[in-house]
Amino acid sequence: MASLILRRLFQLFLLLLGISFLVFASMHLAPGDPAAIIGGPTATKADLNAIRESLGLNDSFFVQYWHYLSGVLHGDLGYSFQTKQSVAEAISIRFPNTLSLAIASMVVAVIIGVITGIVSALKQNSWMDVSSTIIALAGISVPNFWLGAILILIFGVNLQILPVGGLDSPIWTVEGFKQIILPSIALGTASAAMIARMSRSSMLEVIRADYIRTARAKGVKEKSIVWIHALKNSMIPVITVIGLNFGFLLGGTIITEQVFAINGVGRLMIDAIAARDFPMVQGAVLLVASLFVIVNLLVDILYVFIDPRISYD
After folding, report:
1. Where is the ABC transmembrane type-1 domain (predicted)?
2. Can you spell out the DSSP letters for 218-286?
């Protein structure tokens, strides 16, 4: 296990190094001049040149990247071109909202997906199975921004029982819980559908195994067979889907934060891209990429606790 963690941490470093270079390059290749955006329409050539000099944009691409990488390795993500605020500070302020939204969406997805998948497997080819299949297909197909708008229209505008935007309270408070309900449903629906389909397929495979038939032949209660023997062994592929989806949810909060006016990292990233604020975009992308890889590492470690037969040697 220790060797696995060390290998993955080394891979994490190389992966983040590659991601940082690609993001840095793509931002510099994108059309638009940060100096022109900062200076405004009245800025002269001398003003623009002075802005570029102060931001280090007159240096060559590789010199700029080296300065950026050196700062990152020392824990310095740089300063925003627009606000002059520390990138790390700006992200740390908004990250709790993004993490809260991702966790709440994952909880919604796991609860709905796992329960629906298990019920569909146990009631195979019944009306419940067919209904869950149709709902899962709809959940994957419907864009989360469209679903978010519909939820706002129904529960926020027409029924007026839930807030339509913002997240300015912790989600464990009553107000924060109300604010997170609609965005977490909008963001977690597609993941719930994928988890439901994987849970159904995995459970169907397990309940047809020889040891399940043996347990039934010995007179073990059906509830014990399902929730003790079958569920644990069917969870490994489901956990893979959950882990990958949690990483995607962290990145997928961008659109949901815009729809529900949540002050998170995704919204910060969109504003930074529009303003060609290179350090802010690079810091936000690096954070999301790091979390994605860390989640996958935790999933690999969790496999061993679920099924001790798995070995990474």
Report:
1. 95-303
2. TT--HHHIIIIIIHHHHHHHHHHHHHHHHHHHHHHHHHHHHHTT--SHHHHHHHHHHTT-HHHHHHHHH
* CATH number, domain 94-267: 1.10.3720.10
CA angle 103/105/110 to nearest 5° reads: 95
Annotated domain spans of the chain: 94-267
Q: What are the Cα distances from residue 86, in Å, to 36, 91, 217?
A: 21, 9, 65
CA dist 47 and 40 (Å) reads: 10
SS3 of residue 79 by DSSP: strand
Among all chains, which residue has been given the structure tokens 């390059």?
A: 25
Q: How far apart are CA 193 and CA 218, in angstroms?
A: 35
1 vs 78: CA distance, rounded Å: 35
Contact 260, 183 (CB under 8 A): yes
* Residue range 138-174, pLDDT digits in tens: 777 888 888 888 988 898 888 888 888 778 887 888 8
Q: How far apart are the first and last CA of the chain?
A: 8
Cβ-contact 184, 108 below 8 angstroms? yes
pLDDT tens digit string along 75-123?
778 888 778 888 888 888 888 888 888 889 889 888 888 888 888 888 8
- 31 dihedral zone (left: phi>0; alpha: psi -120 to 50; beta): beta
Q: What pTM was computed for the model?
A: 0.80
Token readout for 104 is 């709440």
